[in-house]
Amino acid sequence: MNGSEMSIRCESPRPERLPYHSEHMSPARVDCLQYSNWSESIFREMRAGEVDAVHVTIAYHESFREMVLRVEEWNRWFERFPELIFLGRSAADIRRAQTEGRTAIFFGFQNPSPIEDDIGLIEIVHQLGVRFMQLSYNNQSLLATGCYEADDPGLTRFGVQAVEEMNRVGLVVDMSHSADRSTLEAIAASSRPIAITHANPHWWHPALRNKSDEVLRALTDAGGMLGFSLYPHHLAGGSDCTLESFCSMVAEAADRYGSEHLGLGSDLCQSQPDSVVEWMRNGRWTKAMDYGEGSASAPGFPAQPSWFGSNLDFGNVEKGLAAVGFTSDEVEGLMGENWLRFFDDSFGPA
Q1: Which one, of 268, 250, 245, 275, lies nearest residue 330 by Cα?
Q2: Which is more confident, 37 or 20?
């Protein structure tokens, strides 16, 4: 999607609030990762797209205090748009969102930087509403190794202790940006199933961020969840990836790992300016430009595939999954019911 198309879409008339009836509740529609430039327009698109729950990133490289400022921002949005969104803390909140015609927002970190070097902050961030934390972003963290590092020594001593504490309080271990050994060790160390909320199989598209068959088999064998990414750098064909190619990949993954372990984590960064990419990749750790995946020129957000540019387009994915042969029950699972079950089991104390 180009900027003009995005502007037109965001300025479209506000959709009417959709009717929801608990006795005839539709299957849940859950997106397990977005980092959009949040606005009333996007919140209304969530409702028009019938998205019941979204896991949103509130930290990349932020300190604890900086993360709290993001929570404050979200509290203001919850106050301004209570008819559209509210803070989700449990799977029951997804069912509440369906009944009330709203979207439950679940907080997550793409880096453990907000817990700094204090294991006690894991419980504190959970009390603030955080439900997912990656053990690393692209670089080495105090807990684990990111996928861009040349060497992966696995979980650190702090990392092992952090996983145990996350298990205790109900904070999901997310290894979306982590390297293979660290991910395998996190799966083994965790007493609860973990998640890779937004990535695709490396056998479909060999991006550094996509996951090996070994990792995905270990993840799903342990009851974990994979959310398929719709970010172009993670797609075969990039921005030109077709819906059929994406859905055929999901079908192959279901054959290998079981469809019950699969869902969506779109990694949608709708309406974000290109300058945001510098914070995502660089943080404060380098003076040079970290180009990451994509071109070697100045980093920016790639154009989304024509069939998925916003929360209005989840219906295209649903139709595409049905077209490649998934049953209606399998499609419902992939679109959100599998995540709903995972949320049920993951967010409370062990």
Answers
A1: 250
A2: 37
